[in-house]
Amino acid sequence: MANFFCVLILIICLQLRDAFSENLTYLSVSDWWEKAGFYQIYPRSYKDSNGDGIGDLNGITEKLPYLKSIGVKAFWLSPIYPSPMADFGYDISDFRGIQPEYGTMADFAAMVAKKNELGLKLILDFVPNHSSDEHEWFIKSEQKVSGYEDYYVWHDGTPGSDPTRNDPPNNWVEAFRGSAWKWSDKRKQYYLHQFHYKQPDLNYRNPTVVTEMKNVLTFWLDQGVDGFRIDAVPCMFEDENFPNEPPSGNSDDPLRPEYLNHIYTQDLPETVDMVYQWRELLDNYKKQKGGDTRVLMTEAWSSLDIVSTYFQDQNKRQGSQMPFNFQLIMRLDQNSKAADFKTVIDSWIKTVPSGHVPNWVLGNHDKRRVASRMGGEHMADLMEMVELSLPGVSVTYQGEEIGMTDYELTWADTKDPAACQTSSTDYQKYTRDPARTPFHWNTTSMAGFTMGTSTWLPINPIYTTVNVETELNTDKSHIKVFKRLMELRDKDEFHTVSYGTDTLGESVFAILRSGPVLHKSRVYVTLVNIANKDATVNVQNVFKKFEIEPVDKLYVEVASVSSGRSEGDSIKTDSLLLLPYEGLVLRSTAVTLILSKLLVLIAIIKAFLFQ
């Protein structure tokens, strides 16, 4: 008898395990950041409080209740440090201060106090690869002041035809265009700048620099920061022998960054190790000071096999909690099909190591806005539905929640150095300004962004209809769709889930989420029709794929602006007509994971006990 029950228990365990469809992925989250919606603020363009046409800290603080109201848990600020603004804040002249046009340290303290009051988390941009050439460190290094000689990457160059100075050390090019080497008449050497020439690369092979930058992190943690987004991570280390990089075959212009295969200037193993060191610093800070987990978010536009190494190493040493997932930006556009969505999303899910949480990023200050990239404002809701229906962390770039699109600036209005270093005929291929135009708060002449009469970049004329105030007062709007999705993500059954993706024809992409088998919860199905034509689908096929009992009827939880349906409408699942660019999040009334195996087991037990 005992042996029988042992075997029976084993069968039950196996059946319970199998009740989680092998086609579904299971994720359990617990820490605050693992289930949070993050929001990126580009400070220069968010809210101006003093009328100078430039966003600032007090403007951000004023609008923190707005972030709270739309369901955001944490906000990330692009650089706010003192800077000559050659690259609008990414050329930092003091890592421990505030850019005067943005405010003061007192203003920053007021922001910290307000975010604490609201229960929000603050993430700062950390730019470790380079400083400004106007930073005190560079000035001293250029003058060979004792202790600073090797703070930056210096090189004599190679002999050439010019008798007054050598040629650059090699063929390396910067990210914007041109040689990555700049001659210093003062030092009589070249310095490396993988970005603008006013952004000299720090030398991370110098232990003093490593310690210095760790002290910068600690300084801001002491000011109340909850984590950091690490900029341009792959570029921090270069090959010490400075060899030429091979052509990539992707460009005919030897001065363009895409002309070379950057095997000696990006993604070196030392870079990943540095991220682990920073993670250790943040973890130790929590142990010493208490409080919630401080997080690392890392920017690497690298291949998935490289990005995966930032999570942890072979010894389980932990790195970045959030190596940014840029797949939705890099691999999807307005020509993508439903199968492309599935391929891109599934590839990232497979990349994230067990025990870690996926993250999803639709856009940022360096790329075209998601609505424009995907074909127009009508795609805003659909992309948010995809991102916010997926498990893990979401990152929203300011304006995505209201459906903002790019504004194509003239050459005269262009400010971005990535564009200004090209020409009036091709700058639009490289400019990042269209995604950086001021945020739209209302219908006043300056979109509620400033009380002044001008703005640092022109305001997109669509602000008269695409703005927070108008959309909040409209029955159906992008911001209301976004808020409902964020509210849904706050439900417990959205945090510990089984999930999977599917396609229904060429144009309909589906995401399924369900709670654990023995947990009372609903099943959710997100459907987005990414084509400009009707699509009739049988949702039963999704249930069958994931071994879920058939459901005849589902109910609308969230509907896109383009949908004719409303929350609470019932939907027949065997023949559902989706309008062009319609998106729906549907729910069942009760848990529907397949329980037939369990019912069979119960029948076996009853038969045995009462035979």
Key attributes of the depicted protein:
611 residues, TIM Barrel, 15% strand, 8-stranded parallel beta sheet, globular, 27% helix, 17 helices, 7-stranded antiparallel beta sheet, 20 strands, Immunoglobulin-like, alpha/beta
Main pleated-sheet profile? 8 strands, parallel
Shape: globular
Query: Total number of helical segments?
Result: 17
Query: What structural class is derived from the secondary structure elements?
Result: alpha/beta
**Fourth CATH level, the homologous superfamily of the domain at 32-127 and 325-478:** Glycosidases
Q: What percentage of the residues does DSSP assign to strands (E)?
A: 5-15%
Distance between the termini: 14 Å
Radius of gyration: 26 Å
Strand order of the largest sheet: 10-9-8-4-3-2-12-11
